Amino acid sequence: MAPTLLTVAPTGAETAKADAPALPCSLDELVSTAKACQAAGAAVVHVHVRDDDAQPTLDLPRVTAAVEAVREATDLVVQVSTGGAVTDSEADRLRVLDAGPDAASLTCGTVNFGTDVFLNRWELIERLFLDMREREIVPEFELFDLGHVATLHRLLDKHGAPYGGHVHCDLVMGVPGGMPGTLSALTTCVAALPAGATWSATGVGRTTLPVLLAALAGGGHLRVGMEDTLTFAPGQPVRDNAELVERAAAFARLAQRPPMTPDDARAMLGIRDRTGAR
Ligand code: KMH
Ligand code: ZN
């Protein structure tokens, strides 16, 4: 059976540092988290950046510094978030592509997000897709709902393949306002994906474990991390991101689908080699 791609999403834009002291917010914390998560089995890191006050930011020099520092310290595929926070402008969300990441998230539709709205207009989706292709950045299509899968088809039908030639998706499940983190929602979305696409899934909050187990059983890959999960077990806060990666890696090994190396992840996703060797 195929190995498992493990993505870690260590920070996100929603949680306050005061509420989760282990949340990596400084550059040093991000780098040490990335190293620990690679050692635990992660191959991709999904990066959101915080400022000196631990507030989410899309400030380009900071995002660029984060990309370069993680690349310097690890072999991980560096995927920046173009989702940012619900308050971020489209211009700022597009500009993070200038940080030169290997990959970037690309959400395929608008979704209610708790009491907020995560707005992703069609024109923004197209612009992100085309700008990524021009910059040789591999998109990860973030799908919060079945309608987002339909939009992904529309995007690929109109514009062709993304950079790298391969379609990789992440089902983000259990967000209040998006699809539930259930087996039936997962299988419905997976059945509707474009032919040949690979996919991972992440379950927010309490849906973490059901989604993880369903994804492994269904031949999918895994995303875990403190962006999505702050409670390891009832009444037990997550120690740190590596704890979540270690657990996911252990489940993957039990399923006889051990974690994929970063090099194998690059090959699967079609990531450009930035050393110029390939
Ligand atoms: N923070 C959410 C509003 C992404 O990274 O692309 C959006 C998000 C998705 O986290
Ligand atoms: Zn994110």
Descriptive account of the structure:
With 278 residues, this protein is α/β, with parallel strands linked by helices. It has a single domain (6-277), classed as TIM Barrel, CATH 3.20.20. Helices cover 37% and strands 19% of the residues. It contains nine helices and 14 strands. An eight-stranded parallel β-barrel has the order 1-2-5-6-9-10-11-12, surrounded by eight helices. A two-stranded antiparallel ribbon has the order 3-4. Helix 1 runs parallel beside helix 2 (60-73) and helix 1 packs parallel to helix 8. The mean pLDDT is 97. It binds (5S)-5-amino-3-OXO-hexanoic acid and zinc ion (ZN).
Feature tags:
binds (5S)-5-amino-3-OXO-hexanoic acid, 37% helix, 9 helices, two-stranded antiparallel ribbon, TIM Barrel, 14 strands
- In round numbers, the mean pLDDT is 97
Overall tally of structural domains: 1
User: How much beta, percentage-wise?
Assistant: 15-25%
Main β sheet profile: 8 strands, parallel, barrel
Q: What are the segments in which pLDDT stays under 50 over at least 5 consecutive residues?
A: none
Q: Give the name of the CATH architecture.
A: Alpha-Beta Barrel
Predict the CATH topology: TIM Barrel
How many alpha or pi helices? Answer: 9
Compute the number of strand runs. Answer: 14
Radius of gyration: 17 Å
Name of the CATH superfamily: Aldolase class I
Task: Describe the global form.
Answer: globular
Write a short abstract of this structure:
The protein is α/β, with parallel strands linked by helices and 278 residues long. The chain has helices spanning 27-40, 60-73, 90-95, 122-135, 146-159, 183-192, 208-217, 241-254, 262-269; strands spanning 6-8, 44-47, 49-50, 56-57, 77-80, 103-107, 111-113, 116-118, 138-143, 168-173, 198-203, 221-224, 231-233, 236-237. The protein has one domain (6-277): Alpha-Beta Barrel (TIM Barrel).
